[in-house]
Design brief:
The chain is of the alpha+beta class and 437 residues long. Among the domains are: 202 residues, Glycolipid transfer protein, GLTP; 75 residues, Roll (Ubiquitin-like (UB roll)), CATH 3.10.20.90. 46% of the residues lie in helices and 7% in strands. Strand 3 and strand 4 form a beta hairpin. The chain is globular and about 65 Å long. The two termini are 41 Å apart. The structure holds the ligand CCCCCCCC/C=C\CCCCCCCC(=O)N[C@@H](COP(=O)(O)O)[C@H](O)/C=C/CCCCCCCCCCCCC. The ligand CCCCCCCC/C=C\CCCCCCCC(=O)N[C@@H](COP(=O)(O)O)[C@H](O)/C=C/CCCCCCCCCCCCC binds next to helix 1, helix 2, helix 3, helix 5 and helix 6. InterPro entries: GLTP_sf, Glycolipid_transfer_prot_dom, Ubiquitin-like_domsf, UBX_dom. Belongs to the GLTP family. One of its GO terms (biological process) is negative regulation of interleukin-1 beta production. GO terms for molecular function: ceramide 1-phosphate binding; ceramide 1-phosphate transfer activity. Pfam families: GLTP, UBX.
Length: 437
């Protein structure tokens, strides 16, 4: 209900979410989502399909929490342990546990990333910012890669029905614009912390496996898994290969400082750790299969990666690909890893960490020029445009940036950082004029 929504309640719930051991309490996590859904409902029936899905997921978790095994569902950590120990998690809806707590929470966890990005855009927005653009940029950088074409289209249309920024602030019902911004500034670190701790939930013993590789095969526009391609070479591939290995051009402008600590919080809890790294569970089986098909990957495997690949024994890979039971590390992988993988290259977790310090990008300018430049994850899309301008000696105004991997994502808010947009090392970005056909 519109009247009952309170941004303060959202904040309070996410504050209460973390217990003394920095574990995420499901009860408050659920309540936080309930508040958010009640807000979304007040925006109109165009959001009903989203609301229905969210309510359904919230209900599944609530049923577990209040059910006979409820004691195991008090925290995300205890739930993960319980469900994995008891093999209660399945990858697909057709499995014997199609609606496990883990699977359900993962969906909401991804949505929390969307919320985090959207609220941050909203907090730093200016009078002429559009809620629909902020919402869709955040969506493209998070949930979109997990949704099939139809959902992405429907969601995109729903975003167009969002009220303008001023009305949106009013509907939030939390005082003046300044007060809303202040409240968002308080809520965001809490949401980020809950997100990060959930993301980090995974048994420590998985550390030993971090040298293994991930490949996620993005879904086609029709939501089907794409065939494994060896022969096809698109313009994007061409651009990728043409620039591989990328020469390390430094940026022509000073890099931005590293991300604020509040957005990069580490869980102090000893264990479990790194569990809810975003992933597409339905792709996890594909991942396992992909491991044994690495040699067919259409993208060139980078030298350092090849080295690590050799280190991982083929026997281990065999075992992985034949494993039918869900494994935490296969199941919950961060969006960043997913995004790296959907860029077509195979990377190890430790390489993912290394690449956080540098992002080598191939850029295609509006006039078709191809450039390679080095950035930091904290650089903004505007920095990317500025670098392209410097290098090409041309001015690019009123542009947007598109990713070239599938699903293509388009960002018109150039204040977003590469990391927020999920743009990772060795991606290809296309700069286009907004009014281009
Ligand atoms: C301070 C408050 C301001 C912001 C308020 C935002 C309120 C948002 C409230 C709820 C968000 C909805 C969360 C949706 C969870 C989606 C989970 C999901 O990915 N489900 C898909 C997969 O499920 P399975 O089939 O595998 O079980 C499902 O296919 C998705 C269906 C619907 C599309 C969901 C799109 C979500 C877009 C983000 C929400 C935008 C709301 C805009 C309101 C400002």
């Amino acid at each position: 209900m519109a009247d009952s929504f309170s941004l303060q309640n959202v904040l309070d719930n996410f504050k209460s979410c973390l217990n003394d051991h920095k574990e995420v309490c499901l009860k408050y996590y659920i309540s936080g989502w309930r508040e958010l859904v009640s807000f979304m409902n007040s925006l109109g029936s165009v959001f009903a399909f989203i609301s229905k899905d969210a309510v359904n997921k919230i209900q599944i978790l609530e049923n577990f929490l209040t059910g006979e095994n409820g004691t195991h569902y008090v925290t995300v950590q205890s739930m993960v342990k319980y469900e994995l120990d008891n093999e209660l998690v399945d990858l697909t809806k057709r499995g014997s546990h199609p609606e496990s707590g883990c699977r359900t929470l993962l969906r909401l966890h991804r949505a929390l990333r969307w919320l985090q990005l959207f609220l941050e855009s909203l907090r730093t927005s200016t009078e002429d910012s559009k809620t629909s653009v902020m919402c869709s940029d955040a969506y493209n950088a998070s949930l979109a890669q997990h949704h099939p074409w139809l959902i992405r289209k429907a969601t995109g249309m729903a975003f167009c029905a969002l009220p303008g920024r001023d009305t949106f602030f009013e509907v939030l019902n939390a005082g003046s614009h300044e007060e809303v911004v202040t409240l968002l500034g308080e809520a965001l670190p809490l949401i980020s912390e809950v997100y990060q701790i959930t993301e980090d939930v995974s048994p420590r013993q998985n550390k030993a496996e971090e040298g293994n590789m991930h490949v996620i095969r993005p879904k086609s526009a029709k939501g089907r898994t794409r065939p494994k391609v060896t022969e096809a070479c698109t313009a994007d591939d061409e651009l990728l290969h043409e620039n591989c290995p990328f020469p390390p051009y430094p940026p022509s402008h000073p890099p931005r400082p590293p991300p604020t600590p509040s957005h990069r919080l580490n869980s102090p809890s000893p264990s479990p750790r790194a569990f809810f790294r975003h992933s597409n569970p339905s792709s996890a089986v594909e991942n396992a299969l992909d491991i044994s098909l690495l040699s067919l990957n259409k993208y060139k495997v980078l030298p350092s990666i090849e080295k690590r690949s050799e280190e991982a024994s083929s026997a281990d890979m065999e075992e992985k690909s034949s494993r039918s039971r869900l494994h935490t590390r296969d199941f919950f992988r961060s969006d960043q890893e997913t995004e790296r993988a959907s860029g077509g290259t195979v990377r190890t977790t430790s390489q993912c960490q290394e690449s956080e310090t540098e992002v080598l990008l191939a850029l295609r300018t509006p006039c078709g020029q191809r450039l390679t430049c080095q950035f930091r994850p904290t650089d903004t899309l505007q920095d990317v445009v500025a670098t392209a301008e410097d290098k090409s000696g041309k001015r690019y105004e009123h542009v947007l940036i598109e990713t070239m991997e599938f699903p293509r994502r388009s960002f018109s808010n150039l204040n977003m950082t590469l990391s927020q947009c999920g743009v990772v090392n060795k991606s290809v970005l296309c700069i286009s004029f907004k009014d281009a056909p």
